[in-house]
């Protein structure tokens, strides 16, 4: 029994150590700061500030760090648009940049968790909407260019192409020229954009007579290892590629 008790105690000490390592606290003269295992899209950890308030209460806030995270990505305005709805759903306060909540001592743990989750969610929403806006802008630029290269009669924007799995895919542009078909799709470096494009390209590639597949990216370098993934199912070119290359890829015979 003593052996089991010692083993149980050692186990509990290990788990207690893990719990302490998950959060870090720094105390200043007028407030305390908790660094939590909650991650923004940039990889930064969420930091929550706790201030002593009147009547033994506490003010819990994200100090506007969520806004700063989004603003650094160029999504500050999108964050400000999304955050109020996040605050309403969670029942916390949002004052243009900062999530906050006043609570008593017994509510501190829950308040810290809720404010951290709100800050993270609002940044994630802003990041997603920024990526969607960039994709729409990239699609506009790409289609205008294809209209010029092939004429509008040969370019169908938002075409539906059925893959080998019988899944209908909406593609940014389908070009029909000289007996060839080519699908053009702008792809951002966001993981969701890469995964969705790869699935689409792979399914189209399994067709008996697949169309040429061209992924248009802002920067191959920014894709990192994801570049090799997309290249398994499509030709990958940067937006700055020449008109001749963009046109040639549509007219090549697909192996």
Care to describe what's here?
The protein has helices spanning 2-22, 65-72, 76-90, 108-150, 191-205, 220-223, 226-231, 243-251; strands at 24-27, 32-39, 45-52, 58-61, 93-94, 99-103, 155-162, 168-177, 180-186, 212-217, 235-238. Helix 2 runs antiparallel to helix 3, helix 2 packs parallel to helix 4 and helix 3 (76-90) packs across helix 4 (108-150). A hairpin with a 5-residue loop joins strand 7 (155-162) and strand 8. Helices cover 47% and strands 26% of the residues. By secondary structure, the chain is of the alpha+beta class. The mean pLDDT is 91. The strands form 2 sheets. The chain has a 6-stranded antiparallel β-sheet. A 5-stranded mixed β-sheet has the order 7-8-9-10-11, sandwiched between helices. The chain has 2 domains: 2-131, no CATH class; 151-251, 3-Layer(aba) Sandwich (Trna Endonuclease, Chain: A, domain 1), CATH 3.40.1350.10.
């Amino acid at each position: 029994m003593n052996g089991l008790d010692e083993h149980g105690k050692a186990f509990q000490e290990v788990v207690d150590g893990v719990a302490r390592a998950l959060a870090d606290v720094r105390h200043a003269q007028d407030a305390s700061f908790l660094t939590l295992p909650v991650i923004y899209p940039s990889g930064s950890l969420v930091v929550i500030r706790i201030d002593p308030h009147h009547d033994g209460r506490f003010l819990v806030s994200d100090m506007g760090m969520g806004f700063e995270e989004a603003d650094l990505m160029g999504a500050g305005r999108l964050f400000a648009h999304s955050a109020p709805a996040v605050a309403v759903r969670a029942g916390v306060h949002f004052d243009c940049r900062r999530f906050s909540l006043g609570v008593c001592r017994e509510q501190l743990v829950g308040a810290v968790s809720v404010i951290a989750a709100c800050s993270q969610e609002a940044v994630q929403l802003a990041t997603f909407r920024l990526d969607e806006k960039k994709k729409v802008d990239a699609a506009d630029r790409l289609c205008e260019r294809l209209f010029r290269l092939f004429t509008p009669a040969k370019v169908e924007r938002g075409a539906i192409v059925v893959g080998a799995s019988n899944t209908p895919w909406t593609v940014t542009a389908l070009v029909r020229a000289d007996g060839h078909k080519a699908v053009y799709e702008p792809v951002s470096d966001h993981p969701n954009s890469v995964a969705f494009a790869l699935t689409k390209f792979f399914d189209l590639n399994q067709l008996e007579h697949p169309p040429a597949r061209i992924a248009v990216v802002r920067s191959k370098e920014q894709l990192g290892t994801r570049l090799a993934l997309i290249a398994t199912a499509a030709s990958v070119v940067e937006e700055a590629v020449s008109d001749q290359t963009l046109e040639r890829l549509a007219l090549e015979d697909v192996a």
